[in-house]
Amino acid sequence: MFxxxxxxxxxxxxxxxxxxxxxxxxxxHQAGANVVxxxxxxxxxxxxxxASEAAAKLGPRALALDADVRKPAQVEAMIGKAIDRxxxxxxxxxxxxILRDRTLRKMSxxxxxxxxxxxxxxxxxxxxxxxERMADGGRIVNLASIAASVGFFGQANYAAAKAxxxxxxxxxxxxxxRRNITxxxxxxxxxxxxxxxSIPEEVRAExxxxxxxGRFGEADDIARVILFLSSDLGAYVTGQTIHVNGGWFx
Length: 250
Hints:
Strand order of the largest sheet: 3-2-1-4-5-6-7
CATH architecture: 3-Layer(aba) Sandwich
Oligomer: single chain
Helix content: 40-55%
Order of helices and strands: EHEHEHEHEHHEHHHE
CATH topology: Rossmann fold
Number of helices: 9
Shape: globular
Radius of gyration: 17 Å
Number of strands: 7
Structural class: alpha/beta
């Protein structure tokens, strides 16, 4: 019988104060890993409060750290703090992301750039800073999306960024293979996190007709696949985009 034991390993999950990121950090922690819960500070301090509360619930093997993934210096500082606290960095999950949905005709340059900066450049920044200090045999998992395959109306920025995330995983798998570091992307379907619930109900009613399993995803459905890719069970899987969408294909 196979078990997943991540004891002694340290995982960084970006955008992990809530939703899919928090579910992933919690599952990696349950498997024995030290976890770094990254969050982005907002003026009201809500993100910091959520991340700190989550880390406190998990206990001494969890640490909440503020960093804007769009800012390389902040990312490097966060990774340094993580290694100072836990001694190594073995697993990176690039989960941080935003939506700025609008049709091409109405989308502003700022709305385009905001999504690209966070969802694509942010992944590049975290990967670049991480691999410099990651132990050989590490794992990188980037969150892509079904949007990159289906091309949802009003998501030119989001779909383009997530397609780029999947392509980046393929490239990095080649570049880092000599160090036995695997790099993969996970492409969720519609998941009922806060982001998923922001989709209008009438739109969701149409979407669910495309899902053979007859339901939207839950955060744990995605986190389990990330856990597999982060473990020794996924040691020979690299450069792949794993679609986790209940059977909904383009």
